Amino acid sequence: MPTIDFHPASLELDVWFKQPENRVSVPNDAEFACLQEVNLGAVDVILEALFFRRHDGQDELWAAGLTHDAPGKPRDEQLACAYQQGRVAWAGSQGSRAAGADILFRALTAARQGHVWPEGCLEGPLITEAAHRRIIGELEAGIERNRQEAELQAQAPTLVLARRLGLRPKPAGQSPSAWYADCPGKAHRLMISSSSDQFGCGYCREKGGPAELEALAHQRQEARS
Ligand SMILES: [Zn+2]
Question: In this model, does residue 1 exceed pLDDT 60?
Fold first, then answer.
């Protein structure tokens, strides 16, 4: 049996439908992979249908955010009133269709960590309830390992500074050196790497080391006073 590469070089993701070519309707030849409940943080739980398509040597995972009355309705009705839908992950085909779906579902879920997390699987024709549980369990164990490793770097200068500035840094779980902290004076989070001792905010397009973080915090404090 050929071994499955869970991080193939050909893997690509468009988790937030940023590319217009991925923001299109789920194709008819995509097969229903699973229906899951996903948690958008706090109390927001939505239904999401995932679809798998094997086409021209490529595997694709498609997602559709469904309304709560969607289960039981025909697929075209469900998709017609979906919140959003499109292609979220793709890679060169590997193994069985279930293996291909496993690789893409794992990559999608890992990439959404910190924003969206599966609560449970309601139906699983291709990604079965047992596979769903196993994959989520493995991902959660990996996140916990990363958090524990990150704690060992809690004294990195950027983190010490972030605590002094009241930015409440916490291990993010994506990697053994990934941390979240509050972006100074803003209602969103920035990332800190405890290994490179750098911070970066994708919203504000700010990055740098401890000196730049301190300057940013002071600049925002002055702007408010
Ligand atoms: Zn920011």
Answer: no
